[in-house]
């Protein structure tokens, strides 16, 4: 797409990169990154696309008044004199990816200064279409939105397909179009993570029946947390009305269960206590489940409802929304009847044999609710994928004999020699640390099994991942010192002097000090 300002920065334009990688449906394959990823992402910590802006937007942001003043001055100069020199100066001043810190203050300031809207739009499009860095692209999107999108909605639609830009595109669409809902819906449907959350949040007041139905049946699902959108799905989507409708199909039951489960689980957004129709929706759902419960997801939702009903506090306040003692007792009875049906045994057994990780997880939870032992099923999962989370669930069911069995399996399945390369201050994030992360589950569990797997704790102390060393130190702290292997004291003493992480070094020193004090008491 041509623009009438000269390109003054080297590198691949992010807009062109995204446009070339879109599939025919307008979605961007998940594996497609951005050309500037290496520049902005640390080897120690990597955000998923859109996560940093999403967290800042939901949980607080910095005061960017001074930064907004600086950027507004640069924009004013470029709008008046868009020379190559001034364009370069502007770009140099906005290259950092810190737009979320100052964008609101900047938009407010630009509104007061009343710059030429056409000139500002021109600069915004130039940044959005030609910039090889994400910070300037985000600023360009914001400028397009505040000056009116018009035909350039296509630019925003393209950039929004990448989750790193969806928030800015959703805001630009909301600000820059007189009737933004259809574009927001299309954008929401093209992304799955933080971008979907941002779009659906901006559709919470829609009265469009098609959009409301989509939010209820599909739109709340995202790869971050269903809890962010569950209350919007229940209210905007009309959950209670749908459950009370003449026909409640299988798809609606599944989505209703997922929404109720997310509301009860709670977290970063509105939860079941914010949903005034929560008790009525649970009543309608359980009434249908009594005869139509079929899937392990159904079981999971009913089990979550039953666990919620067993909570000891909060009911005085909830009673204002219909959670009376009488209704709760009826809900408990209905839940127990559904969960105790004999037909679940076969479904659970089939789920535990499934290769689908979601189905297996649902079956595992259902088995635990029903008191079924799943240790052997998790052993099989561990053997299939030694780097998965099967270790955690197996250790939860480990007695002394099983603990030794799991410790032996660690030596068989994990590359201990590749893990014990020596202490460093690594966070252990990324695919190159899968073995270290898998060992974590065992190091965490061994604290409850004194004397078992001592050599694995020593291996953890020699790991470059700080978390591994802290887990091993915690286990040794819990173990009686009579169960420590002979060289544990020397290794911990060395860490107390030289561990590259300050906190781990202090932890090791505490253990060393405790060891000396214990020895002195023993001698006396």
Give short descriptive properties of this protein.
0% strand; 524 residues; mainly alpha
Structural summary, described in words:
This protein has helices spanning 14-21, 37-40, 51-59, 65-80, 84-94, 99-113, 117-130, 134-147, 153-160, 163-176, 181-189, 194-201, 209-219, 230-235, 239-243, 250-265, 278-292, 296-309, 315-318, 325-339, 343-352, 357-369, 375-384, 390-395, 400-413, 416-419, 434-445, 454-461, 466-478, 488-498, 502-523. The protein is mainly alpha-helical.
Report the sheet-strand fraction: under 5%
Class by alpha and beta content:
mainly alpha
Measured between the Cα atoms of the first and last residue, the distance is 84 Å
The helix content, as a percent range, equals 55-70%
Name the average pLDDT: 92
The gyration radius over C-alpha positions equals: 28 Å
Q: What is the topology?
A:
Elements: H1 14-21, H2 37-40, H3 51-59, H4 65-80, H5 84-94, H6 99-113, H7 117-130, H8 134-147, H9 153-160, H10 163-176, H11 181-189, H12 194-201, H13 209-219, H14 230-235, H15 239-243, H16 250-265, H17 278-292, H18 296-309, H19 315-318, H20 325-339, H21 343-352, H22 357-369, H23 375-384, H24 390-395, H25 400-413, H26 416-419, H27 434-445, H28 454-461, H29 466-478, H30 488-498, H31 502-523
Helix pairs in contact: 4-5, 4-6, 7-8, 8-10, 9-10, 10-11, 10-12, 11-12, 16-17, 16-18, 17-20, 18-20, 18-22, 21-22, 27-29, 28-29, 29-31, 30-31
Summarize the structure.
The chain is mostly helical. The C terminus is likely disordered.
């Amino acid at each position: 797409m041509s623009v009438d300002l000269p390109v003054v920065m080297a590198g691949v334009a992010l807009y062109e990169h995204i446009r070339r990688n879109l599939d025919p449906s307008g979605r961007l394959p998940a594996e497609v990154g951005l050309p500037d990823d290496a520049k902005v992402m640390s080897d120690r910590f990597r955000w998923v696309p859109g996560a940093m802006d999403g967290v800042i937007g939901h949980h607080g942001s910095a005061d960017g008044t001074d930064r907004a003043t600086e950027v507004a001055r640069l924009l004013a100069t470029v709008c008046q004199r868009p020379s190559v020199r001034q364009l370069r100066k502007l770009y140099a001043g906005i290259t950092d990816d810190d737009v979320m810190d100052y964008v609101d203050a900047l938009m407010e300031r630009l509104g007061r200064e009343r710059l030429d809207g056409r000139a500002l739009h021109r600069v915004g499009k130039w940044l959005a279409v030609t910039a090889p860095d994400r910070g300037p692209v985000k600023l360009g999107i914001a400028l397009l939105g505040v000056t009116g999108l018009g035909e350039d909605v296509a630019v925003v639609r393209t950039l929004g397909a990448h989750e790193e830009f969806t928030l800015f595109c959703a805001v630009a669409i909301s600000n820059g179009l007189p009737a933004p809902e259809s574009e927001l819906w299309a954008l929401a449907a093209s992304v799955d993570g933080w971008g979907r959350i941002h779009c659906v949040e901006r559709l919470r007041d829609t009265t469009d029946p098609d959009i409301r139905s989509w939010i209820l049946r599909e739109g709340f699902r995202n790869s971050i947390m269903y809890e962010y959108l569950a209350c919007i799905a229940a209210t905007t989507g009309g959950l209670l009305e749908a459950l009370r409708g003449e026909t409640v199909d299988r798809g609606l039951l599944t989505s209703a269960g997922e929404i109720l489960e997310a509301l009860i689980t709670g977290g970063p957004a509105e939860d079941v206590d914010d949903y005034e129709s929560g008790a009525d929706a649970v009543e309608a759902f359980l009434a249908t489940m009594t005869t139509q419960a079929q899937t392990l997801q159904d079981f999971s939702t009913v089990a979550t409802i039953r666990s919620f009903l067993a909570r000891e506090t909060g009911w005085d306040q909830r009673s204002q929304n219909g959670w009376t003692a009488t209704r709760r007792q009826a809900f408990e009875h209905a839940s127990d009847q559904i969960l105790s049906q004999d037909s679940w045994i076969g479904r659970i057994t089939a789920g535990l044999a499934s290769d689908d990780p979601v189905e297996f997880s649902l079956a595992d939870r259902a088995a635990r609710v029903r008191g079924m032992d799943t240790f052997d099923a998790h052993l099989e999962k561990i053997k299939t994928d030694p780097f998965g989370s099967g270790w955690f669930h197996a250790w939860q069911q480990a007695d002394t004999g099983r603990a030794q069995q799991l410790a032996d399996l660690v030596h068989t399945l994990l590359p201990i020699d590749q893990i014990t390369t020596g202490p460093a201050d690594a966070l252990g994030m990324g695919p190159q640390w899968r073995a270290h992360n898998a060992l974590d589950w065992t190091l965490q569990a061994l604290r409850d099994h004194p004397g078992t797997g001592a050599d694995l704790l020593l291996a953890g102390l020699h790991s470059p991942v700080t978390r591994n060393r802290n887990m091993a130190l915690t286990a040794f702290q819990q173990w009686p010192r009579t169960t420590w292997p002979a060289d544990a004291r020397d290794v911990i003493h060395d860490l107390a002097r030289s561990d590259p992480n300050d906190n781990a070094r202090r932890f090791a020193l505490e253990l060393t000090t405790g060891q000396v004090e214990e020895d002195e008491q023993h001698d006396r």
